[in-house]
Amino acid sequence: MNFEINERVTTRYTKEQLLQALEARFKKIARNAQRDGEIIRVNKVAGFGYALGSAYRNDTTAITAKTVEGGFLVVAEVNYRPSAAFWIILAITFFFTGILWVIPVAFYFMQKNTVRSAIEQSFKNINNEFHQNVSMPPPMQLPPPMVRPAPPESKLFVYFGTEVKGPYSRDQVRALLDTGSITSETQVCVEGTETWQLLSQHI
Q: At 59, phi and psi to the nearest 5?
């Protein structure tokens, strides 16, 4: 008797992290759980009433995680079958007690629901655990750009052919240029330096 259980897990975690979490969880609720590549192989899933009826069944489960949009689809393929003890007890109760043979059968089917419920609950727990980390972190707040004050505009000394005047601000020099008092070929010197250059290099 085979059946399948699946759960969609929306998460930003990797498949490897998801598989590790699944393996750790099923090691707590099964007789054995072990990774085989990207498959987790589980033997005898536990749950409520595990000790009472587990002797009647042998169940093996293969758990995989398939990549889907926004996360993964976790799938458990369960192979659920009667154990040797089930057949022995069934035969004894059938031949020697008559109607009591229904007891091992009832336990067998009850245990199927136990296995299903245990796997479904484990998947939901994993989903809740991984889903809590889906929301994107708030955007990183960048510090405001450092605003450096503009250096004070240097003034210019102007050579008028026979004399040096100034210092003038750049606006004053532009006004002299506009009135024709000087030209772009006029020699100027930046205040605080000793180098004369053409006005065209500064305006």
A: -130, 135
